Known about the structure:
This protein has 319 residues and is α+β, with helices and mostly antiparallel strands. It has helices at 12-19, 25-33, 62-65, 75-80, 121-132, 159-167, 231-239, 284-289, and strands at residues 2-5, 10-11, 37-39, 42-43, 50-51, 56-59, 93-96, 100-105, 140-141, 150-156, 173-181, 189-193, 205-215, 219-224, 244-245, 261-269, 275-279.
Amino acid sequence: MERKLVESEMVLLDFLMDHGGFSTRTRARTAIKAGLVTVDGTAVRIPSTTVAAGVTITWTSLSKAVKPKDFDLGGASGSSQKDPKSIPSPYDIVFEDDLLIGYVKPAGMVFASPKPQVKTSYTRMREWMAKARPECQDVHFVNRIEKESSGICLIAKDLQLRKHLQDHWEGMESGMYVVVDGHLPPDDVITAFEPSDSPKKRGPLREFPYRTMRATSTHTLLKFRMKFDDVPVLMSGLRRHSCMVVGKGKEAPDPMGRSGLHLYALEIKGLDGEVKELKSRVPNEFLQLMKGGKGPKAIPGKSEHKKTRSPQEGTRPVR
């Protein structure tokens, strides 16, 4: 434990960064919110608190907050004293730092519900955090993903961060894997009009560039830079190519028992402007459905090249 007299009025977080030996503002902020910092003997949990000259600040670094045991005899008593960090998460965690957790919600699981009796991925994560991350007392979900789809969900360990992420969500980059029933030209662009308030006018034209990952005789796996909010517009563009998102809508084929949508990537900007990149793998259901598929090949009549090629001549160059 360390202590120091404040010589001039300043913000508590700035004081710790100047004198506390913390490597980042995130670590200093986390220590404050964990109750590891006191001002004249009283714990202060708000990093933006202004401290006056003459007060004494005492703090404990995060690395010293949990002291190791002197010995461990093992056996029954030892096995019951599990390190909280070793408790397995109910879902795959793709990112974690002092203020944020990113995990993959599986398809078929409700993300969150106002009904306490409904078991959701968020409640399961909160139950796990209560055991594995007991220091996290102020947690909030950030984004939602529909039940029939999967993808990265975020849990903020701080209300301020949650508000920041939600306020700036539209400007954050994200990527989706999309499985469609049908075929498209490889590595191309889907165009579609957004809905319009007037039945006589079209909305703005949207473009959705994509990469073709894999194709079978029936389905195609595509990669887009887009959000779930863009899916309805994308689906209207796919219909013009006689394609449908698998498992999305009453008329769409449903060979996987789930939708063909997965939010695989998020690029977010934190409170201090730092950029975090989160990525997940292709869902196993997608891999099984596309098993045996080949790389993308141009479809006769849909290639932009004037030269007519046979299926054996390979693919168009990626643009």
